[in-house]
User: Fold these one by one.
Assistant:
Number 1:
Amino acid sequence: MPLTAAQQTRLRDDLRGLIDGDVRCDEVTQQLYATDAGILQSRPVCVVCPRNIDDVAAVVKYAAEEKIPLHSRGAGTSLTGESLGNGIVIVFSRYMRCILNVGDDTVTVQPGLLRRRLNGVLGKSKRRLFGPLAGNPSSTSLGSILARNGAGLHYLRYGLPSDHLVSLTVVLANGDVITLDRNALPQPPPQPLEGGKSVALAHAIAFGKEYLYAGETAHVLRNRTREQLLESAKQLPVNRAGYAEHAVLQGESEHGVDLARLFAGSEGTLGLTVAATLKTFSQPQRKSAVAFFFRSVFSAIEAVDGIMSRSTSPMLRPVLCELIDRRRLNMVRDWDAHYRPLIPAEAEAALLVELDAGTLEEPMSRNDCRDQLGHLIDLVQTKKQLCFYALRVNTDEDFELFDQVIRRSELVLGRMHRSIQPVPLFDDVAVPINTLNAVIHELLALFQRYEITASLSGHAGQGHLRIHPLLDFAQPDTMPMLRPLAEYVYSIVLQHGGTISSEWGTGLLKSQFLPLQFPHLISLFRDIKATFDPQHLLNPGRVILEETHWTAHLRHGLEKRGQTPPFLSELSDSQFMRQSRKEHLPNQVEIQLKWDPSFVFESAHRCNGCGECLRYDRRSRICPLSRGTPTIEYLPRAKADLLRGILERDIDLETLTGGRAKEIADTCYHCRMCDIECPSKVDVALLAFRSKAAYVAAHGLPLEDLMTSRLDTILNFLMPASWLLNAAMRNRVLRWFLEKTLRIPQSRIMPTLMHLSYLNRIRWSALRHRLLPDQTDKTRVALFVDTFANYFDPQLAELAVQILEYNGFSVHVPLRQRASGRGSFLVGHADRADRLARHNIAQMSELIRLGYKIVTIEPYSASCLTKDYRHLINDAESELIAENVVDFCSFLLQCYWAGKLREDFQPVSCRVGYHAPCSALAMSASLATDATPAEQLLRLIPDLDVQRVERGCCGMAGLWGFLQKNYRQSVQIGIPLFRALRRAEIDFGVSDCNSCCSQMTHGTRKRAVHPIRLLAIAYGFQE
Ligand SMILES: Cc1cc2nc3c(=O)[nH]c(=O)nc-3n(C[C@H](O)[C@H](O)[C@H](O)COP(=O)(O)OP(=O)(O)OC[C@H]3O[C@@H](n4cnc5c(N)ncnc54)[C@H](O)[C@@H]3O)c2cc1C
Ligand code: SF4
Ligand code: SF4
């Protein structure tokens, strides 16, 4: 829906005048909302974030007058382009995400609330939950759960979302707001109303508008033909294609009209949900589950038939039955070492089965659960001899791993290499269970004919299959193959009485195939749509196909994954610069982009929009900044979307130097948690750095950022006057002055600057020998000190050296080392980051060739040297550094594992609260709750009670929290950690990152120290 600039400005101004919520029409915002988690792309003309129902109604009325399509959106993580479109996108997840009321067994919510958040609150306060889940558990909004009404993962336990819907408030296409209460269904007249608008108005006033819509719908449905009724009756219980017309007319005489049931699953095409009341459940007991491993996928399917057929096993009550194939199992094993002992390498397929164990109020007895499980294992393993291994799941930890395997098996294909794409075209079909085997045989034969490989999984217990052909979009024959392939797959599914969708609905991808499944009902669907949305403005192209083929909306650059973008690769560097200059691009932008553009391109394209970065739970830390502010700009995926848009030329290159791009890039504080938590391994920190660098190149650095980047130089300069600076830091008036001039936050406790840096100190001291490469045959270690220890805590570096020497290492402190440059990476000061990286690489690589291992005091420095340098410089030397740099605690732990660590520790009797820095987790590729090397090391000290305090990021992120502009947010992020540390029984805090220690002290007034100090005490070097 292309609009001129003037039209767009008018649209924006009109809407801003009408509503309280946000209205944005800029290029960058359009780009951020142009994709979801699938393979389609469509750029909206405007994005609106309403604050309340009035806002929604006003936008809908305006759109109806101006004939602009509307697309409702929750978290935007659908796979079929459901929330995409070129009209106005209405985003519910920004403001309309509240719990409005919690009753004993119901809850009233706004549509943008994430299911995960709702259940977090209900679980804590009432030990209840909203059960059904059809969608990505990390990011699914309740509006979308109702709009799709899919069967989903928990169907066997809870049924469909609409089974738990008490009432629904919707805004219709003309702006009418109606509430559909399922306990009081409207009873419309047996015949359509006659007498024109005045009669309708009179009825609406007397009985409510619901009455009128119920009457019109009943009229459409009562005219169903015999063929339509037959088609309707043949539907699978888990069918989600088309409208649920069969469930609308209720009661003995079919006079009650259940419009809420019709709206559930209508994919936002009949109205926009603005509030819903849902039934809640007592939390289930989870006591018995088992993972079966099979040598063939057909044995697994045979087992499904046995498990689900009640006649064979009347005792069994499965509430979950998931199939995972070999490809996914192997990728899950490779993802995380935790799974290796659990998943046998020879397994061709696995079935994860959970059995009913009752609810919290009515738990099944332990004996009954044990018997049930024994019976199930007996059936599958002993009697039918289908599986070769059965793994019982008993404890809470086992259940957590069980859930993770299911979860990761869904996400894992995003990790596939480069141009190979899992296409979400067939991963939501369902067939009767007894036909599963035949369907899979036929599908595999089809894929063999097309010479493609596919991955297979699904909620097998309800006949659901996720079929993922792995297609290489770089091949010219891939695109033309898609449509015939889809038709073959669907014809196999439909021949066996199945459905083309059991969870997602048809969306943009599948609506064109709906007539294959419902040749007669499709006209009825059109009549229903016309009743509620005669202008076809609500989510057009979904359910009722009326637009161009979806291949016209393919995500840009899909076919180029794995290649260098042509507009960069076709030109040599110098040509590129000339060409760019011709186009009047800011010179500096090109220079920033010139660094290995293919890496940036590949990384930006890796993001598939899966929404895993919206995951806010105990085991996750991804993007601490986005937790308080759930706008799309804060999400890691926004950084990828922005750069992809620029590299694909969907938006101008100059945009990168604009304030909006900077705003987005600045929401990344380089913690690198997405390195391990993003399933697709998108290097978001790097993408954000590139964006910031382009901005800096065009506009220069503001004072605050310049100070951050050049902190080491400034400290060097200030050291002689350290006494004056330290005194100033204690003086309230001077602190106020420093805040106003140098943007140093008044309230922040600042570390004390030394008058002599560590490197200067050893340069002239008796420790001089540490500067010289050692000639003995001891294992050689070079210590990388970095800014904090060098200028603020030289004793820490000294203790590190002492500990290493005590353990028999020959320690060398390279005097010409410079700061790692983490401040420069943080603010996007690329030139300086580049200079520092090249300098340090030259210094360190020489030492590595002499046999030295480089040990950094903090994991943050190690992360900078290994990851950031490699991406920035990308040559053999930086690879060498990446392989040979390790942080202090990891190094000592490796020594311990190799039996080389001295363990003559003295007891240290105290209780410490250990906080794991994000960089330590990211470096050791651990989950948030896993023990870091520092934690494991501290546990070796006798009598030291180490309490892990896992409350997410501390909010400091190196220097980020020291900046005045970030101070408030930094403290807010740290509050859960402060609360836990303030507990009386914790004597003091410990963290292997000095800025984390500084934040912990700041937030609790309890001292926090580096583990080196505790190790030094345990070795007797310090009191
Ligand atoms: C890794 C991964 C795994 C997934 N696994 C599954 C799965 O197992 N099962 C499954 O079903 N899906 C799955 N999905 C798809 C996705 O999770 C679901 O589509 C989910 O419901 C999307 O939620 P959302 O809030 O992002 O919705 P959106 O993408 O924002 O919207 C989804 C639909 O709901 C409509 N909608 C949203 N809010 C409203 C409203 N207020 N009023 C009317 N209509 C509205 C939109 O118009 C759109 O049609 C998966 C996705 C990913 C990335
Ligand atoms: S950044 Fe990673 S986690 Fe976030 S949407 Fe993209 S792929 Fe998913
Ligand atoms: S590096 Fe950290 S702050 Fe940046 S996007 Fe990733 S998780 Fe968020």
Number 2:
Amino acid sequence: MLRRICFAAGRSAEVGQAPDPVPGPGQLLVRAEAVGAGVGLVRLLAAAGERGERVRPGGEVVGTVVALGPDVAGFAVGDRVGGVVFEDAFADVVVADPRLVSPVPAEVDAGAALALVRGGLIALSMLRAGRFTPGESVLVTAAASGTGHLAVQLARALGAARVVAAVGSADKAGFVRECGADEVVTYAQPSWGDPVDVVLDGVGGDAMQHGVDTLAPFGRLVAFSAGGGSVDVASLLGDAKSVIGFTIGRLNRTRPELVERHRAELWDLLAAGRLHPRHTDFPLEQVTEAIELVAARANLGRVVLRTG
Ligand SMILES: NC(=O)c1ccc[n+]([C@@H]2O[C@H](COP(=O)([O-])OP(=O)(O)OC[C@H]3O[C@@H](n4cnc5c(N)ncnc54)[C@H](OP(=O)(O)O)[C@@H]3O)[C@@H](O)[C@H]2O)c1
């Protein structure tokens, strides 16, 4: 059998064909329903373009198990799963590591599921890493992104007293307000408003210090972007502020039981109607258009490629 698979470099990508892979020991073969395209993919393709290489990148995937390699426990053919696949994710058939996927409820739309399995997991895990408690105030940067819009929704759902959304362009204000933000600021504004207890920073660079300066005494900034940045330690001392680093990869590798608890909590919040993942969908063949949307920083919510 042949699968459809995406070959990409720089800003352009095309869908070609390749033989269906055979799952090796400890691997699952998954027929994908949807794959996520985000800023990580844009960065990876830009780097590949500079090297003149075509790549077959990884990403988050939702689909159904169609075959099991030897020595796989805990999964069966027909299970619906979602999680991260490190390479060749942009295809209609993918090989998955069972440690990085988990069950997805049958009734959840593939786009919503795709938004939750990574972005939702990151957003909830960051609120926990930032020791958020109900009644506190939260500021989220990159607040309209696949991860950020769910952080806004989760802060609201988990009892934040005030949620501030920081975005690159005022055009995104209506979207982030629909997600539950009380206030919207753009990065360029000299002040991001009254102090907050928790900042979730998905932008990096100058936003890091700006976020620290917006923290109330004992406030915590969770830094999760690949955008770098630095903070003047002296600006932390007087008001006992903290900066906490976060990657979902570290959590996946070292705290699988916590990841499972967070995933279960996300499905419960979704079923209770307290989360509304937003996504823009493209067919797999329009992968270049999907990449362009993210590269232009114009996406609202998760960008999803439908492989079915
Ligand atoms: N630590 C982790 O485990 C982890 C995992 C996945 C993603 N991330 C980070 O989370 C952030 C959001 O990722 P995502 O996949 O949710 O985003 P996404 O859905 O692809 O949304 C992209 C949006 O993020 C904002 N953004 C922030 N930094 C950007 C940059 N350097 N280039 C382009 N857009 C940027 C832009 O909105 P504005 O113009 O409004 O800012 C853009 O529209 C990124 O910084 C990413 O590196 C971290």
